Amino acid sequence: MGNEPLLGAHISIAGGIEKSLLRGHELGCNTIQIFTKSSRGWRDKHFKESEIMAFHEAKKKTGIDPVISHCSYLINLASPDRKLYEKSIDSMFNEMERCESLGIAHLVMHPGSHKESGELPGIEKIAEAINILHRRTAGFKVKILLETTAGQGTNLGYRFEQIASIIEKMEEKSRIGLCLDTCHVFAAGYELRTEDGYRKIFQNIEEIMGMERLMVIHLNDSQHDCGSRIDRHEHIGKGMIGEEPFRWIMNDERFKNIPKIIETPKVESKDRDNLQLLRSFCN
């Protein structure tokens, strides 16, 4: 793969976790993102030795590296509901265990939703939960990456300051990073479409938490305008962001070795088209 940018898609694990690597390879990906189990259910999963071996063999065969994991959408580490909060911590622990067993280094999660309990208490709960998880997973290599959100409803993580505030409360700051989603930051009110706006976003990250925290980028266009706070992904160049900002990202030297993952709509299954378009932007 040589000098090619690290570019891939979120891929299904249907039929076996190792199948995701083969599907990614067919699309020409050199990195992919997966769920390690159904993202819509609480049911826990542990991999058999044979599944782990098949995954590693497929990884070797395809050369896809790294593989990123995204945790279940049900997990809410900001929940004011004690039962759901504890269930979320347990579920997140299982997510980390699965990543560790597969040798996956980065686990992306949406910070959480405070459900009208307030942003500051929500941030406190997220930090407390991650500290508990870090203690329970001492010696694990997997890092949790907090994903920027659109700020829909009571979702936290729509300002870089909120993510920095969570990181600030970490006992083990070296075990946490940032995943930037282009659709989400745009919907949250960060202007990506002008060169000045683009520059300011990354200057902002540098000043607030340091660019070294940025470990994964989700490349998604947005169905809604800047500041809408609505999280609806669109195909690259077909939404309100347009092609140009994606061209900048693809040619930005700072992001060459950062995995860039598309999570564009699956209905028309245009992953191949989106990836080809992004590759064509590279100078």
Structural notes for this entry:
The structure is a single chain. The strands form three sheets. The chain has an eight-stranded parallel β-sheet with strand order 1-12-9-8-6-4-3-2. By secondary structure, it is α/β, with parallel strands linked by helices. The two termini are 16 Å apart. The chain has one domain: Divalent-metal-dependent TIM barrel enzymes (TIM Barrel), CATH 3.20.20. It is 38% helix and 15% strand. Strand 2, helix 2 and strand 3 form a beta-alpha-beta unit. The longest helix is centred in the N-terminal third of the chain and has 21 residues, at 82-102.
Choose one word for the global shape.
Answer: globular
Estimate the strand proportion: 5-15%
Named at the architecture level, the CATH assignment is Alpha-Beta Barrel
What is the chain-wise order of helices and strands? EHEHEHEEHEEHEHHEEEHEH
Total number of distinct structural domains: 1
Average predicted confidence as pLDDT: 96
Q: CATH H-level name... which superfamily?
A: Divalent-metal-dependent TIM barrel enzymes
The CATH topology name reads: TIM Barrel
Biggest beta-sheet profile: 8 strands, parallel
Segments where pLDDT lies below 50 for 5+ residues? none
The percentage helix is 25-40%
Secondary-structure content class? alpha/beta
Strand tally, please?
12
Arrangement of strands in the largest sheet? 1-12-9-8-6-4-3-2
